[in-house]
Write a structure and sequence with these properties.
This protein is of the alpha+beta class. 30% of the residues lie in helices and 19% in strands. The protein starts with a strand and ends in a 13-residue tail after the last helix.
Length: 232
Amino acid sequence: MTYDKDNIVFQPKPTIHNFRDITDMEIGRLIVLGYAGVKHNRSSWWCECECGTIKIIRGSHLVHQKIKSCGCLQQESGKNRTTHGESSSNHGGRTPECQAYYSIQQRCYNPRTDAYQYYGAKGIECHFESFEQFLNDIGRRPTPQHSVDRKNTRGHYEVGNVWWATRQEQARNKTNNHLITANGLTYCIAEWADVLGVDARLLALRSTRSQWCDDCTINIPVNGGRCSHISS
């Protein structure tokens, strides 16, 4: 149900210590105008959308960004899917590019998905205004082995910060990469494993758990001995 501004009646805010006042908060296209009281046993808020629509929306849906507009955003997204024709390929289902875009939306805004805890819950957002903008920025998927990755893993999904990457490239792009310098070269563990043709877990075990020095981690063959810099 929508309202005119003349119909708005703000309710007194609860005085309990853990009540969260989200007045003036901006969520997507919405701005929270004020407290609307308890509706269906849930705290609710008066919100105004960029399009001018005013609605009462449940507070938890706003805080967790499950709702980001009065409904106009979903309607526009539906039009985009119909226009670009990527939601149903000749073989049935979404194209890989459309599936990637849909997956980004889910991991950023759907708390019910497993990936949400690593993205949306940590403040990662999708700033692409449409699938067309996303596709124009990233292009078609080069191979089935590529998937969407962020260049700056602390940044959002936005123009200039997404690319198609292989699993190996994504592993090297993690913020918690451990770098090893040996023989005049500095690589992360995944890169050294590729160079040496060994299991990356072996190098990680040597370098992080066993505290081997970088030179021994890289230069001692598998089952070839112990780090010479660790006292026995």
